[in-house]
Fold each of these.
Amino acid sequence: MGRRLLICLALLFATGPAAALAQQRDSRPGVAVFPLTNGGSFGESKEDLEALTVGLQQMLLTELAQNSGLRIVERSTLRDLMIEQDMDATARVDAETAAHLGKIVGARYVVTGVFIDLNGDFRMDGRVIDVETTEILKTAQVRDDRSKLYSMLVKLAAGITDGLKLPSLPKPVQSTRLERKIPDRAITLYSRAQNYEDYGRKNEAIQLYRQIAQDFPAMTEAKERLEQLTKG
């Protein structure tokens, strides 16, 4: 059975009657996040910048998932759909296309974004799109030194829901997340590992997750992913 057929079957299951019933039971608004695009960075290696497109996507999803009032669409679901549609993960997606794909994966809102790293001066822009109207409901921006990349992600996740008719992340939870000591090096390595997974380089991904878990124990995302890939 070919890869395309497997993807189509997976998407059919994810968006078919069973999924629709599950979504009816879960009334929380669904949110999907597209890979962040590189808006013209320089100062870091090409491999690291390429990896950040999916690494920041997954990290942002993780932060949004701390908000129990939201239903998060898994990155792999959107990735498989983009592959099926022959879409380049590094290309910018317009509001209409993002809304169309978001509707297919069962999202109520989609988030697209851009990052720019200018020798450590790091900026991320996010926008929230209504899948029903394709309207851009909200834009959010964070900017700081690259060393504070993780705290920027936490603030961007909070800014995405702020001012919209969406549940907000409770302040105590946000404060707890901001207290985590996650250096930008850990996020860079985590992004590479996510990229390796997307390209089927599982063993290299496992090695990187193991390294992150050892060197940066506060980044529990790496340990959790390592356990998922090596269980059994």
Amino acid sequence: MNKEKAIEWVLRIALAGEFIGHGVFAVQAKTRFVEMLTLTTGIANPLATKLIILIGILDILVGIGALLFPFRLLLVWATAWGFLTALARPLAGDPIWDFVERWANWGVPLALLLIRGIPKKAREWFQ
């Protein structure tokens, strides 16, 4: 395996771990996740809990997708979602360092996207 492929696999595994891990916590309706959703959007329980569970399922699917077939559009989503969920911490009242600590949540999928290359044609977003 060449160096670039090895780096790609490290990033794929890291991305999968992050999204599957967060997804499992969300499917379990982790209290802090529900609180953050409520504080940043105004959505109240029990809807917030149901949405967190759905978000968790999506996160798990993104994590599995990162391992099996990390197509570019999935990586864009993971980058944006990783950034927004990291940003949700200080928006929900946590210190800014909770955001800084989570830069890898969006940096890993962005690095993987850059390795795979930014598409020049629409169909390349699904490759």
Amino acid sequence: MRLLKAELKRILKSSRSMGLIAIGICLSVLLAVVPVLFVSADIRDAHGNVRELNGISAIRYWREIYKPFDGEVTPGKLKSALTTYQDCVKKYGNPNSESFPPDVYIEKIAPIYSLLRLATITYDDFVNGNLIPRGLEAINVDEFDSFYQECDTRLQNVLTAERETAATIKKATELYGKVERPFTLHAGYTRDAFDYLTINTLFFVLFGVVFSAPLFSENYETGADHILRCTKFGRKKLARTKILAHMLMNILMYLIGITLHLIISDLAFGTSTLKTSVQALYDTISLPNMNLFQLQITVSLAGMLSLIAGNAFTYFVSAKQERVAGTLSLSLLIALAPTFIFMGLGNNWLSAILPTGGVGMNNSLLNQLVDFRFLHLGSHSFWTPQVTLLFTIIWIPVFLFLAIRSYSKHQVA
């Protein structure tokens, strides 16, 4: 315990460590604020002029006009929204055209946009093995009586169109069968906010690598390891203590940063919006049985696991490498590898099973969850998010063991 306290005190006195922690926390706040600033709304004032709202004021405006449609996504609400839309189209033409009256769009179309989007992405025609979206004008309001059956049909059509295997069809159908219905919609929270949350987790993983790279390599370079290795606890116990101290600081930095991020984001958009089903924000055939709050927690915890796994690999490399620059280069390369591999190969085993397979851009766990991604091995199919989380957890003890063992057996030059 005294050794751990001494190591923690040494870390806290380091200007480099404090600088990284400060940058990480400031970046978390910035990344939480940016998607809030993206929100805008056009309103008509008392003089009939259209003016633009941005940020918090726009969010409050949208929450107010969405309120009558909050709650369960029922056939009745969908019918009402589509009837309003079709009546406006008959009277004024295409809402996206310049001739469409702005005040009618603001008062009639904008409040029901989220419901209309669900209809747009759900109803399509399956022709010659291809899915052809149907316009809102082509949907009969009475079709909404079987809206959730249509979601099931669309899932099967997508599986067929993508020529998925029988194992994938079975797995996807089982997962989708667990999704609670009717969906819940409290419109307001944006996809941008989730995208910036995943970017934040990626930055923390990279900060963790930079923070951890000098752990053993630095003492190799300076020669301090010659002295430390000769002390009573200078091998395994020292390695375990240094790893534990650095891991605690990384986890603490992550928890503070992500907690601040979520508090700012959730208070800005409104905590009620977190009751929204994943399917209502993304795709009606998204497979996770979660609301947005549960999705936030899942992405955040997965990010922390990726941070720990990425650090564990960095400790192992640091125990092997004689130079900090070499440790840093290799560790950053592996941390970013899933993103680059996914960009080149798409959904694949390699990007999923690497220690940081759950963080990145298009390869992130968030996108794995809301998109339709499966991995195949022989006649078996596996849902990519489950594979990613499993291997992230597996790598943690593996690389921690290898790091301690490698440092203990390191030969002083």
